[in-house]
Amino acid sequence: MMGATQLGVAIPNFWFAMMLVLLFAINLRWFSAGGFVGWDKGLGAGLWSLTLPAISLALPQAAILSRVMRSALLDVLGEDFMRTARAKGLTRKQALWRHGLRNAMIPVLTIIGLQFSFLLAGAIIIEQVFYLPGLGRLVFQSINARDLIVVESVVMLLVFTVIMVNFAVDLAYALVDPRLRS
pLDDT tens digits, residue range 163-178? Predict the structure, then answer.
């Protein structure tokens, strides 16, 4: 498992996207190599055309999150409250789900907040690889057309989105750890 997560962290998402296109679109012909069929063709067709881009965006993020979650859980498992929970009669699995997971979520939430901006930046690149319509393509076309108002507007929208996600992560801290509610 550790080797898979290291591979997921090391592979750039645009290269992984091209490998997915090579394998699943060109060799196996299961997916389209690019483009978006549109929602008017149906929900299933729209989601099917977004499957490869979603996987190529999610792989590095999931690898980083799994490494952080593993290390946080290993740290929590050695704590006194986990031994106390086990001594009170909880099984290892019950103690992990009731007490360990909640305490291990703080660093994971931090990484989720930090990764969101990388996810947006990666989406801009993945839109170019798969020739998808989106904010990334809009910014790219606006830069080429020197339409600075559109570029500024999209950048401000993305900045606002990142700020709101980080605010939501801060609120989630209070849900996970009751000590942070005051």
Answer: 999 999 999 988 888 7
